[in-house]
Amino acid sequence: MAQVTLHLRAETKPLEHRSALSPTVVKKLSENGFKVHVERSPENPKRIFDDSDYEPYATLVDEFSWPQAPEDHLIIGLKELPEEDFPLKHTHIQFAHCYKGQAGWDQVLGRFAAGGGTLYDMEFLEDANRRRVAAFGYHAGYAGAALALENWAWQLQHVDTPLPGKKPYNTQHDLVQEVKTDVAAGVAKNDGKTPQILIIGALGRCGRGAIDLCLAAGIPESNLLRWDLAETSAKAGPYPEIRQSDIFINCIYLDKPIPKFVTEDFLKEDPSSRKLSVVCDVSCDTTNPHNPIPFCTKPTYFDKPTITVEGFSKPPLSYITIDHLPSLLPREASEAFSNALLPSLLELPNADKAPVWQEARKLFQKKLATLPTSQNHNKHS
C-alpha cells in the first residue's frame, strides 16, 4: 500500500480562519501512516491553529507552495482556489462550488480538464445512506442565527447605520454572551417584545445550529417557527409567515427548482403586515439560478455583514449572505469538521475501493462531461 501524502494548503479567502485539518486530526493521520505537509499560515487570513501546533506531526512548508508539490500529493483545503487559469494537475479535496451551475463553474472544472487533475468535492462526499460524511452546516446555522439576531437588535438602535463588521470569536461561549447582551438591548428598545424567527430547513444540521443559538441567546421556544419540507410542500410560496416574522433564516439545501420563499413584490403587497427586517440566507445561493430569495443576489462579508434592500423602512430590510459563516467560530467548526472527515481520509490509501471516494470521483467525471466541447479537450478523455 503506497503511503499517502496530504498537502494542507493555506486559505486565501479574506477572514477565512478555519482549517480542513486540525492538529488533532493531523496527529491521528500521522499515527496511521500518512505523511502530512502543512503550509505555513499567512498573517491574513491567519489560520486559527498556530503552525507550531502541527509541527510534531507534520512537515511545515511554504505558504501557497501546493502548485509545485509532486503530482501524487493530495491537496486539501476548504474554500475555492484563487481565480487563476493555470491547469490543475493534482487531486484536490475541497469545496469547489461548481457542481450546481454556480457562476464560473465551467472555468473551475475547465482547469481540472486541462491539467488532468481530479476534484473530490467535500460537499458531495457521502456515506452509504447518501448523507454527507462531514459538513459545516451546524456551525453555519449557529453563526448565521447569531448575526441575524445581532442585526435585528442593531437595526432597532441604529436605524440608518448598517451592522458593523465582525471578527472571529475565540470560543462559542464568547459569541453567545455577546448575542444575549445585544438581544436584551433590542428587546428593551422593542417595547419588551422578543423577535419571532422563522427557520426553513429546521430539521437539518444547519437548522439545528440556528435553533440552538436562538435558544442559547434566550429566545423562547414559542417565538421559533420550525419549518421543513412538510411545511414548504403543503402550499406554494411566497409565504405570509415569512413576511410576518421579524427574522427569516434560510437553512435549506438547494439542488432543484423550488417556489420562491419571499420576494420584494410580495413584501410590498401588504406592507402593513410586514414585520420582516432581517433575512439570513445561510444557504447562500446568491448565484444559483433557483435562488428562492431573489433579492439576495450579492454576497456579504464579515467586514460588511449586511446589505440593505432599498425601498423598505419602518422597519428597514437587510440581508446576510456570508458564504463561510462557520469561520465566525473557526476553532470549534474546524475541529468538528475535520474529525467527521477523518474516517474517510483514512480510506484514501484504498480510494479506488472505498465507496465515498469512488462515488465522488464518478460525480466529478459526470460533471466534467458537461463542459462545453471547447473546454473538454483534456487528459481525462
Beta-strand fraction estimate: 5-15%
Radius of gyration: 22 Å
Number of helices: 11
Structural class: alpha/beta
* End-to-end Cα distance: 27 Å
Description:
The chain is an alpha/beta fold. It has 11 helices and 12 strands. The strands form 2 sheets. The chain has a 6-stranded parallel β-sheet with strand order 3-2-1-4-5-6. A 6-stranded mixed β-sheet has the order 8-7-9-10-12-11. β7, α6 and β8 (224-227) form a beta-alpha-beta unit. The radius of gyration is 22 Å and the shape is globular. The model has no long low-confidence stretch (mean pLDDT 94).
Task: Offer a few descriptive terms.
381 residues; alpha/beta; six-stranded parallel beta sheet; six-stranded mixed beta sheet; 11 helices
Summarize the SSE layout with pairings.
Elements lengths: L4 E4 L14 H9 L3 E5 L11 H4 L4 E3 L12 E3 L14 E4 L10 H11 L2 E4 L15 H21 L14 H18 L7 E4 L4 H12 L7 E4 L1 H6 L5 H4 L3 E4 L13 H6 L8 E4 L25 E2 L9 E3 L9 H16 L9 H14 L13
Parallel strand pairs: 1-2, 1-4, 2-3, 4-5, 5-6, 7-8, 7-9, 9-10, 10-12
Antiparallel strand pairs: 11-12
